[in-house]
Amino acid sequence: MKSSSIIVSVIVGVVVLLTAWILGNAYRYKFKSTQTITVNGNAKKDFESDLVKWNATFSRKNFELSAASAQLATDRDLVRDFLVQQGIKVGEIRFEAVNIAKDFEYHTDGKGNGYNTFSGYTLSQTVSVESKDLNKVDNASREISTLISKGIELSSSTPNYYYSKLEDLKLELISQASKNAHQRADNIAKESNAGLGSLVKADLGIFQITGQNDNEEYSSGGAFNTTSRKKTANITVKASFLSN
């Protein structure tokens, strides 16, 4: 009986030691496998817009609606002729619907009572241009004020610039930012005498477009500059890699 008890005790001891060894190695493996290196990869690129959108609004006022309409039609022809002379194609010119407003003037009589009187109709129309010939539209937007000397009441907006291959640019920068993140993580691993494992997580940052040399601040919702012809696109990728 005594020898049997000793054998049982030895077996129990061996089992305890074996269990402790297995749990210890499992813990070390778990600890090791959960070690990660997290970095932010970045990519940016300067580019120039290849599409411009611009508009101007002109108006006429008259007591007679038909007279105001006729004057606006004459102005419309002058505006179209001017743009064509600037080298803009007819197909790139679009006239929006005419807006009609009744105007009133407020008065007070000798007793202080207020009343309105009809002061005429104001008709306005917007002309918009969308073109890939940025230089011609830029010149037209600056020179169109010369039509004011012909009696046209006109206000011009600032041209807005866009890039037609924006999705391709995004994909290019995402690829570059991902490579940059992997390179940074690999450098950290080497400096720590460790190896870099597989990617476990990646989060894409906000895509930002700012004007070149404009010192614009990034926006939490993503900046999208349309006023600068030359722009800079920027994107970040936050990536986590296993370390072994």
UniProtKB/TrEMBL annotation:
Pfam families: SIMPL. InterPro entries: 26kDa_periplasmic_antigen, SIMPL/DUF541, UCP029033. Coiled coil: none annotated. GO terms for biological process: DNA damage response. The chain crosses the membrane at residues 6-24. The keyword Ubl conjugation does not apply. Keywords: Membrane, Transmembrane, Transmembrane helix. The keyword Membrane applies. This is SIMPL domain-containing protein. It comes from Sphingobacterium athyrii.
